[in-house]
Amino acid sequence: MPEIAAHLAAHGERARLRLTGHSLGGSLALLVSLMLVARGVVGPEALLPVVTFGAPSVFCGGQRVLDALGVGEGHVRSVAMHRDIVPRAFSCRYPGHAVALLKRLNGVLRNHPCLNNQRMLYTPMGTTYILQPDGAASPPHPFLPEGAALFRLDPEGRAERPARHVVASALRAFLNSPHPLETLSDLSAYGSEGAILRDHESSNYFRALNALTRVPRRRKQPEIVWQLPGVERLQQYWWPGIAGTVFPAAPPVSVRNKELVSEA
């Protein structure tokens, strides 16, 4: 906070702040940025979008917080590795026995609105970017085209339902595959060579993004349409114990390949 105060004092109305972080650091960056606005330390115009990498969600109904503070959905840009367990941990759909266990361990969770209504602890907020590295670094995600890319869910052309609802439906399907319980049940996922560290380590985020910046830029990048899979395909990849929580298929969502540097 002293550094922020010094920056504001030195630059006055021209001062601009961008907070970023990886994993829990990304969650803290989001909380600090919203706290600065809520306390009147800075106005929304002084805050550049927060960019998080592999960060867990920390709000239940966080979109309402963004709307109330007047910063908008574009204030949060969350980058998640295609198979990273951490962004999924609190935002996946928990099976019934997991919900019961959480409520027994912590009585406060018995009245948790997201856990009661959506079987998750926290909901994603802002814009989510899905980072898929080269196949040699990590296997491709079954819902995405093969190859290294940074994807953004884009509901353009889907006027039959509110855009935010379409994106939320697609994001729910993505966050539940692979389901964190599936990853945790695989003993080979642990350790320095396991998938948990491989897909969450900050240095691997850096390598994947750095590789994308070296790809020659095209005047017009190709648009890829991601057709959300139906129930059968979801069940093929989901842990059998939670197959009953599969979401129905949603309308196709346009996915565009973007470079982070051009967005952030």
TrEMBL record:
The Gene Ontology biological process annotation of the record reads: lipid metabolic process
Q: Where is the Fungal lipase-type domain?
A: 3-92
Q: Which Pfam families match?
A: Lipase_3
Q: Which molecular function GO terms apply here?
A: phospholipase A1 activity
Q: What is this protein called?
A: Os01g0618700 protein
Record the organism.
Answer: Oryza sativa subsp. japonica
The organism that produces this protein has a lineage beginning with: Eukaryota, Viridiplantae, Streptophyta, Embryophyta, Tracheophyta
